[in-house]
UniProtKB/TrEMBL annotation:
Pfam families (alphabetical): HTH_Tnp_1
Gene3D superfamilies cross-referenced by the UniProt entry: Winged helix-like DNA-binding domain superfamily/Winged helix DNA-binding domain
TM segment ranges: none
Sequence similarity: Belongs to the transposase 8 family.
Protein name: Transposase
Organism: Bradyrhizobium brasilense
Cited SUPFAM superfamilies: TrpR-like (SSF48295)
Length: 116
């Protein structure tokens, strides 16, 4: 039986949790979704446990499903292209926008494409 004694644990170094930006996670997830990509190798390269990257992938897929259920006429975000552009397929139309585009402007473009 092992007992934890409070005064023995007080000197243990406290580790801070790392925070990853949403942009970084999206970039890593897109890399992990490429055909033939090794999740374990990618995780090792960036210094995280593979289970963390699998969780990020699972969360991204769930978000994509939620988006598609809210916007049935839209096939969803296809992929970031060269890290600076996103593509959104709406029916047979593909809308390409820079990642720095104003959200309100992008919404107006999407509404215009849907109504056309």
């Amino acid at each position: 039986m092992i007992e934890a004694v409070a005064d023995r644990l007080e000197g243990a170094p406290r580790q801070l949790r790392r925070r990853w930006s949403d942009e970084f996670k999206a970039q890593v997830v897109m890399e992990a979704l490429e055909p033939g990509a090794s999740v374990s190798a990618i995780a090792r390269r960036i210094g995280i446990h593979p289970s963390q990257l699998f969780a990020w992938r699972r969360d991204a897929r769930a978000e994509r499903r939620r988006y598609r259920s809210r916007h049935p006429s839209c096939e969803g975000v296809v992929a970031p292209v060269a890290g600076a552009v996103i593509e959104i397929a709406i029916g047979e139309v593909i809308v390409r926008a820079g990642v720095d585009v104003d959200e309100a402007q992008l919404q107006r473009v999407i509404r215009a494409v849907r109504s056309a």
